[in-house]
Amino acid sequence: TCCLLESGVRCVRPAGNACYNKRIQKTVQQKRLKFVVDPGVSQMYICEHHKNMIQNYRNQQHQKSRDNNNHNDNNNSHNNRDINFLMLPLSLLRRYKRNFKLISKPGCNKAQLADIVARHFSKIQVDQKDVLTCFLYTCKSNRSQ
Ligand SMILES: [Zn+2]
Fold this sequence. Notes:
By secondary structure, the protein is mainly α. The protein has two domains: 4-75, His-Me finger endonuclease fold; 80-144, no CATH class. It is 55% helix and 11% strand. It contains five helices and five strands, in the order βββαββαααα. Helix 3 packs across helix 4. Bound molecules: zinc ion. Zinc ion is lined by residues 2, 4, 11, 13, 46-47, 49-50.
């Protein structure tokens, strides 16, 4: 039978061909799973049920780290480095400011305005490139009217 003790109770499922190896041991430790090998057993085989369970835990972990990586990639590509707000026309910055009801000091210069817009821009959680594209489009269509 399976060599694992789950919360102190010996698993009664028949053992599969999977061995309780170092990799599984590591996952169990990392995930703080309540599995221990029964000290009284001579073989280290675990049942399909526990093998799958531990594999799922490991996959979740991989998925998570992959998601984190993707998340970071997105952040980097949407970084303000992509857009130099000082290069945008002042009218556009003013429109942006008005559009998002940003507060600026009266009579602030373009650099300050660009800074405010850039800061707001980095905060918004939606796809920033889409917003900017949409925003530029709106400005253009407003102008042509
Ligand atoms: Zn088991």
